[in-house]
Amino acid sequence: MIMTIKNAIKIYLEWKQTHTSSAYTTYKIRLNQFENFIKNKENLSEINGDDIIAFHRSLEENYSLNTIAYSARVLKNFFWFWHGRGESSFNPKEIIPIRYISADKDIVTAEDIRDMSDLLKVYNLQDLQKKLVIHLLWDTGMRLSELLDIKISDINEQGKDGLRTAKVRTRKSMRYNLVIWGTETNDLLNRYLGIRLCMDTDSNYLLINPKTQKVFTPRSIQRWINQLSDLAMLDKHLTPHSFRHGKANFILDQGGSVRDVSALLRHVKPESSFQYMQLSKKRYEDVARRYLTKFAPSNLQFT
Question: Which UniProt keywords apply (predicted)?
Fold first, then answer.
């Protein structure tokens, strides 16, 4: 039976949904967009590298380079899936996604955490939840999906040194990892658990909305961060991932190595850690300044 493009996308997305819910939506958008672009071809076996190139060129007028690079990764993964099943002779290695990283991306700093945290009161439940979220994101460098997936049963007992750990699952790699946070964050957690365990709900998730009894959505957390950033007058465009980037920069600023970043942020691929070297404009300037040549005045005489 000949595999049509429409059916190939449907089967691939069903498989994708079995192990990740966050990527499923964006993958569906990009794959459907690709299907609409190549309407003149019906079967998967007809697709070649020229079709991929033409599709991404068609995106250049209306989409950013980041979006086009992400689309390339989606299509590469899609064709690897069908290449492995023997349904496509097209070599996915022809698709070379390019990563675009902004050297001056806004990141969270330790000072930002203090400024935002000082705005929140621990005796107010909503404030306490917000305070706990930003401290957990900062201490652990967790992805937001990892944080929202934490269940109460995933949290381990407090150690003698006041530190605490939890088991989190990374949706990108489907691996379980251990995250650790400090005593101040643990004090917030203990205070919150005193309220959380009294909530009338069967849910085992740590962070739930007391009104809906459901896990907070990523949009809710983003809204909290926007509000706190504005109230603290940070003049930054922050996202939950800004905490992860900020933690990486903080580790490097404290004299840590890229290997430390890789370990604490739980990167599967070591090269993922190197991108954080570019995220801080200050660090970029400091490193560049260190290796600039200083010429003696006599060497700079012009005629």
Answer: DNA integration, DNA recombination, DNA-binding
Q: List the beta bridge partners of residue 166.
A: 155, 179
For residue range 132-169, list pLDDT tens digits in order. 999 999 999 898 988 999 999 999 888 777 788 888 87
Kindly list the distances between the CA atom of residue 47 and the CA atoms of 4, 52, 70, 95, 101, in Å, as whole numbers in the listed order.
11, 8, 19, 13, 30
- The set of residues, in sequence order, having a beta carbon less than 8 Å from that of 18 and lying 6+ positions away, is none
Tokens of 182: 């400090």
DSSP state letter for 215: B
Tell me the C-alpha distance between 264 and 43, whole Å. Answer: 45
Cβ contacts of residue 230 below 8 Å, gap of 6+?
none
Helix (H) or strand (E) holding 168: strand 164-170
SS (H, E, C) 255-268: CCCHHHHHHHCCCC
**Separation of alpha carbons 72 and 84, rounded Å:** 18
Residue 79 corresponds to which amino acid? F
Greater confidence, 70 or 281? 70
- For residues 266 and 263, what is the distance between their CA atoms, to the nearest angstrom? 5
